[in-house]
Amino acid sequence: MTSVTIRIQEADFDIARETALLTQGRTDIGAVVSFSGICRGSDGEGISALNLEHYSGMAEAEIGRHVEEAAARWPLFGVTVIHRVGRIEPGQNIVLVLTASAHREAAFHAAEFLMDYLKTSAPFWKREETSEGTNWVETRAHDDAAAARWTRS
Q1: In whole angstroms, what is the distance from residue 14 CA to residue 145 CA?
Q2: Measured between alpha carbons, how far is residue 37 from residues 27, 41, 96, 116 in Å?
Q3: How many angstroms separate the CA atoms of 81 and 31, rounded?
Q4: Which one is the CATH code of 3-147: 3.40.47.10, 3.90.1170.40, 3.30.450.20, 3.20.20.70?
Q5: Residues 124, 128, 134, 137: is their CA dihedral positive or negative?
Q6: CA distances in angstroms from 95 to 10, 37, 61, 98, 127, listed in the order given
């Protein structure tokens, strides 16, 4: 793999710019899969904001370890993972995962693998703000089940 970008930041990101940076000057890339997670607020839960915290240094290292595992499983030419921290309001970006490969299947699988990890095991903590107060978000069973499919026996 030739290009890996991992950033944790408060600032928003530009998906088109990040995709262009990943593919710039490359003619061997035939597929880029992108996943962008966006803060929702109108799903009946009344979320007014999310506050995301992380373990600085550890989060980047752990994401890097999972990017390496994705590259060992699928032929990737590049990966970008950007995760925001701080206060994020509905409609704002939370996370971006870009995976680049010669073919779509590898890019799709790698993106799913990385998102399942980020959703369940990455050292981030999410606290929801609602009209009733704040609460820490726990991992959900369906997210754990999605991540379990990648476990090697």
Answers
A1: 31
A2: 28, 13, 7, 12
A3: 16
A4: 3.90.1170.40
A5: negative
A6: 11, 5, 17, 10, 16
Place of tokens 């890019």: 107
> Across-strand partners of 33?
99
Total residues found in the chain within this entry: 153
Q: Could you read off the pLDDT of 26-68 as tens digits, one per residue?
A: 999 999 999 999 998 765 567 889 999 998 889 999 999 999 9
Question: What single string gives the DSSP state of each residue in 101-137?
Answer: ESSHHHHHHHHHHHHHHHHHTSSEEEEEEETTEEEEP
Instruction: Give the span between the Cα atoms of 130 and 103, in whole angstroms.
Output: 42
pTM higher than 0.85: yes
Residue matched to tokens 């904001």: 49
